[in-house]
Amino acid sequence: MIEPEDRIAAQDVFRALVQRKYAIPFLMDYVQAGFPSPAENYIERVLSLDDLCIYHPEATYFIRVGSDSMIGDRIDRGDFLLWDAYYCSPEVTHGKIVVVQLGEDFAVKRINYVDSNQLILESSNPKYLPIYVNKGDKFKVCGRVTFAFQKLI
Amino acid sequence: MLYGLVDANAFYVSCERSFQPRLEDKPVIVLSNHDGCIVARSDEAKALGIKMSKPLFEYKELIEANNVQVFSSNYALYADMSRRLMSTLTHFVDDVEVYSVDEAFILADGYEGIYPSVRGLGESIRQTVAQWLRIPVSVGFGPTKTLAKVANKLAKKQLELTGVCVLDTQEAIDQALDQFPVGDLWGIGGRYTGMLKGNGVETAAQLRDLPDDWIRQFMTVNGLRLVHELRGTPCKMLELSQPAKKSICAEPGFGTLVPDLETLTDALTSHLSRCCEKLRKQDSLCGAVTVYLKTNKFRKTPGNGLPAKPYYKSITVELPHPTNSTPDLLKYAISGLKAIFAFGYNYQKIGVMLTDLVPFDYRQKGVFVEGPNEKMLQLFTVVDRLNRRYGQDKLRLASQQYNPDWPMKQKYLSPRYTTRWEDILEAK
Question: Is the CB of residue A81 less than 8 Å from the CB of residue A62?
Answer without folding.
Answer: yes
